[in-house]
Amino acid sequence: MKVYDVIIIGGGQAGLSVAYFLRRSALEYLILDDHKEAGGAWLETWDDLKLFSPSEYSSLSGWAMPKSNEEYPTKAEFIKYLSAYENRYDFPIQRPVKVFQVEKENGLFITKTDKGDFYSKTLVSATGTANKPFIPKYPNATHFSGTQIHSVNYSNSDKFKDKNVLIVGGGNSGAQILAEVSKVAHTKWVTSNEPTFLPDDIDGRYLFNEATQKYLGKTIKHSKDHSVSLANIVMVKSVKEARSRDVLNAVRPFKEFYEHGVIWNDGTKEQFDAVIWCTGFRANLNHLESLNLTENNKINTEGTRSIKESNLWLVGYGNWTGFASATIYGVGKTARETVKEITALLKR
């Protein structure tokens, strides 16, 4: 029976970041990825997605992403970079491998998959959130006769041509999908609060730096004109173009569905052919359920390390696993600290 020092579940940006720092150690590790190719969750995003930071702020540790020909890198460019990153460092990866569950027996983790069982002394879960899209509950949603899809299943605007489309959810995904669909369809945009758009000359670099300073409790300079949040909308080219067409106008949530559309809070009915939910994701932790650690879709951690199961680390799920750990630029720091802790544990 082969026993690895570390098994990493997930071969996206978080898993690769952990692998980058593990390769410097003498530990034997293996990445298990459920995709057929490199790219992680980015493989499941829409065709024309644009990152909202320049290449140098869209890079993993150790090797910068090659400069894009456009202002912001495309989805295809980033996936190509992740593939090249894997090859550059020759990470040990098995794919596609579907992980069913993780068990603990005699001090070892047993990761049960469609390719057999894998044994390890420690475990890093880096499965992210893309496999668990979140759709808020609305009354009578099942009565709606039109199409409902989550942004994770949106590819392009072709199937929405000349239709009435309701786009629900703010943030960069909502704004970019609205910008695209509104070119071919009649759209309305619903957000919980009025969306915040960054000035045209501000992008993800500023967002990350300002949010970091705020998180650390430091004084933020030159931020009088706009609040700081990683949820602020970056004015990429497509969103600027949508602004010129006056389609970036959001309304507050509706009350409920009816067969042909939605009912607003004033009782008015409006017909829609389709709803696109740009409402985010939740942590994909189903494979860890048998360990009985999950509470409210989270596992209590100190940094990235599970408090109840000290040989388990979780990387890339959001701020509860380290500030900005779900971002390309932010995951490196939490990955580095994770590997320091794993190395210290196994060297005892």
UniProtKB/TrEMBL annotation:
Keywords: Oxidoreductase. It comes from the Bacteria. Pfam families: Pyr_redox_3. GO terms for molecular function: flavin adenine dinucleotide binding; monooxygenase activity; NADP binding. InterPro entries: Auxin_biosynth/cation_transpt, FAD/NAD-bd_sf, Flavin_mOase, NAD(P)-bd_dom_sf. The keyword Cell division does not apply. This is FAD-dependent oxidoreductase. It comes from Bizionia myxarmorum.
